[in-house]
C-alpha cells in the first residue's frame, strides 16, 4: 500500500462536504422561488405559517388536556351567563367579525374553505407540515 494513498471513504466524505458547502453558498432563494413559480415573499410567508403552526402543534401536544378543559369550562360559564341574562352575546356581530354572512350555511362555508386551500396551497401545506412536525416533537 502506498504511503500517500488516502483512506477509502475519506475522499468521498470531503467531496460530499464540498458539495454541501457549494450548494449553500450558491443557493439563491429568490431564483429558486421563481423557478417553482413563486417569489421570495411567498417563501417567507410560507416559512411564517410553518413556524406558527409548528409552535401550535408543539403546544397542542404538551398542553392539550389543560387547554381543552379550560375551553370547555369557559364555554359553559359564558353560555350559562348568557342563558341567565347576566351577559348579552351579540351573535350577529360575532358572525360578522368571522366573515359569516346571514345566509351562509355549512355547505357554503366548507366550499369557501376549500376555495381558500386551492388559492393558497403552499401556505396550507406549510401549515399542515409545521403542525405535524411540532406535534411530533412536542
**Overall 3D geometry?**
elongated
How many structural units, i.e. domains? Answer: 2
What does the oligomeric state look like here?
Answer: single chain
Given the helix and strand composition, which structural class is it? Answer: mainly alpha
Order of helices and strands: HHHHHH
Strand content: under 5%
- By DSSP, the count of extended strands is 0
Helical region count?
Answer: 6
Overall description:
The protein is built from six helices and no strands. By secondary structure, the protein is mainly α. It folds into two domains: 31 residues, no CATH class; 99 residues, no CATH class. Helix 3 packs across helix 6. The longest helix has 44 residues. About 4% of the residues have low confidence.
Brief account:
Helix content is 77%, strand content 0%. The chain has helices at 10-26, 29-35, 40-83, 91-97, 106-119, 121-137. Residues 6-10 have low confidence and may be disordered.
List the helices and strands and how they pair.
Elements: H1 10-26, H2 29-35, H3 40-83, H4 91-97, H5 106-119, H6 121-137
Helix pairs in contact: 3-6
Keywords:
138 residues, 77% helix, 0% strand, elongated
Amino acid at each position: 500500500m502506498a504511503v500517500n494513498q488516502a483512506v477509502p471513504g475519506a475522499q468521498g466524505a470531503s467531496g460530499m462536504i464540498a458539495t454541501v458547502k457549494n450548494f449553500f453558498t450558491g443557493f439563491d432563494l429568490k431564483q429558486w422561488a421563481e423557478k417553482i413559480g413563486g417569489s421570495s415573499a411567498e417563501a417567507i410567508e410560507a416559512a411564517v405559517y410553518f413556524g406558527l403552526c409548528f409552535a401550535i402543534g408543539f403546544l397542542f401536544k404538551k398542553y392539550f388536556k389543560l387547554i381543552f378543559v379550560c375551553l370547555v369550562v369557559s364555554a359553559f360559564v359564558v353560555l350559562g351567563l348568557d342563558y341567565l341574562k347576566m351577559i348579552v352575546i351579540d351573535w350577529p356581530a360575532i358572525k360578522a367579525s368571522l366573515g359569516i354572512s346571514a345566509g351562509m350555511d355549512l355547505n357554503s362555508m366548507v366550499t369557501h374553505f376549500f376555495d381558500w386551500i386551492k388559492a393558497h396551497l403552499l401556505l396550507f401545506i406549510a401549515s399542515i407540515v409545521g403542525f405535524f412536525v411540532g406535534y411530533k416533537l412536542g
